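$ ./design --mode recover --in tokens.txt
reading tokens...
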């Protein structure tokens, strides 16, 4: 039976970051993943600028930078245009991004094993044991579950919850020539966001990159009107691609046949720790409940979990009483934002016309909203200013257009 101080299950951004930080603390760590890398992840590849600010080494992993964006209301009647000299959004290729994070962890001394599926996690008073599908057993002092929405670590340690609130998505990453990318999205690589595209309780996107374009739709199930017939997201995606072609936002030869599906958790688990166990990233439910973005929360939670785990190993305090400090750390770091943003998740089921119109008519409101949605600003710190600006913009619109029917 092989033995490690810590075993990190799942080699996405959360797991690779956690493993790297643990190794930097002198901890003997094994990072394992059920897939062979590089592997694709259900993701648009949009990277908030705060990821690079918090983890500067990721700057070398950026595929391209978008300096402008256009946000559309559902009817396409209202548009919010943003163009600036500073990056609006970084873009990454998830296959390369994740693999590079793993390689960085290995350079710090992390042992990495791919194509290894965990089937059981056994926690005892003296140790933890990881059981693989080939019968191999790995002994460790602690386990970090970074293994996604269907976390086997969470399940086997009684931390898992039924995911009643999820985001379902369809997406595809398609090669495109620089000439076409420049013609359609300019050298600024303009991002296009479609609020409630074709009436869905969510949004669509076009993320142009260096040599590819990522197109997708995301539906927030918690905001779906259950009294209406259930939609077929693949059919909606096909129609969405057709609309984008009509609007000259995709070339005529673009095919949506290669679209893939994925699901994401929306709200954090009630408990993210147990004896000898910590959960990070998607496994803990750390996703922006408004945008579906999760890379920032994955990497930050991986870093925080590694710091707590390293101290737990060196002080021989691996009980949940000590590990509860991790829950306090992530709650303080981003928990308030996730909780407050979660209150607005249901807004995806409501009309988008008014909000996009307000944003397009009031630049300070737009700047605040984009800063919060993009992660540059903390919602918990700026929410009252946002509320006041929203009321001001609403009053301004009402005074300018007193007789116009509300949209």
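writing sequence...
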């Amino acid at each position: 039976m092989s033995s490690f101080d810590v075993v990190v299950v799942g080699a996405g951004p959360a797991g690779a970051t956690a493993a790297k930080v643990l190794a930097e603390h002198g901890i003997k760590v094994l990072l394992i993943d059920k897939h062979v890398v590089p592997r694709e992840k259900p993701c648009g590849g949009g990277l908030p600028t705060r990821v690079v600010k918090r983890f500067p080494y990721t700057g070398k992993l950026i595929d391209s930078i978008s300096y402008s964006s256009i946000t559309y209301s559902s009817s396409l009647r209202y548009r919010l245009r943003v163009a600036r000299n500073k990056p609006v959004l970084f873009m990454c290729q998830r296959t390369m991004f994740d693999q590079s994070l793993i390689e960085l962890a290995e350079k710090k001394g992390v042992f990495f094993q791919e194509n290894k599926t965990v089937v059981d996690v056994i926690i005892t008073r003296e140790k933890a044991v990881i059981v693989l599908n080939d019968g191999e057993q790995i002994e460790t002092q602690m386990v970090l579950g970074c293994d996604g929405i269907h976390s086997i670590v969470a399940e086997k340690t009684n931390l898992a919850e039924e995911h009643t609130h999820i985001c379902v998505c369809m997406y595809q990453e398609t090669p495109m020539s620089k000439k076409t990318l420049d013609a359609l999205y300019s050298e600024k690589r303009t991002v296009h966001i479609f609020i409630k595209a074709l009436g869905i309780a969510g949004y669509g996107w076009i993320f142009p990159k260096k040599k590819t374009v990522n197109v997708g739709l995301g539906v927030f199930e918690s905001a779906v009107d259950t009294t209406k017939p259930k939609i077929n997201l693949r059919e909606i995606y096909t129609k969405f691609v057709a609309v984008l072609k009509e609007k000259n936002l995709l070339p005529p030869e673009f095919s949506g046949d290669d679209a893939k599906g994925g699901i994401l958790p929306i709200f954090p688990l009630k408990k993210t720790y147990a004896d000898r166990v910590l959960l990070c990233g998607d496994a803990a439910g750390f996703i922006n409940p408004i945008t579906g973005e999760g890379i920032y929360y994955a990497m930050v939670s991986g870093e925080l979990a590694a710091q707590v785990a390293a101290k737990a190993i060196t002080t021989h305090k691996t009980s949940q009483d000590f590990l509860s400090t991790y829950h306090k750390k992530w709650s303080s770091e981003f928990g308030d934002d996730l909780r407050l943003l979660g209150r607005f998740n249901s807004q995806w089921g409501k009309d988008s016309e008014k909000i996009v119109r307000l944003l397009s008519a009031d630049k300070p409101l737009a700047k605040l909203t984009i800063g919060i949605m993009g992660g540059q600003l903390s919602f918990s710190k700026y929410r009252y200013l946002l509320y006041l600006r929203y009321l001001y913009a609403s009053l301004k619109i009402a005074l300018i257009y007193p007789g116009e029917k509300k949209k």
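exit 0
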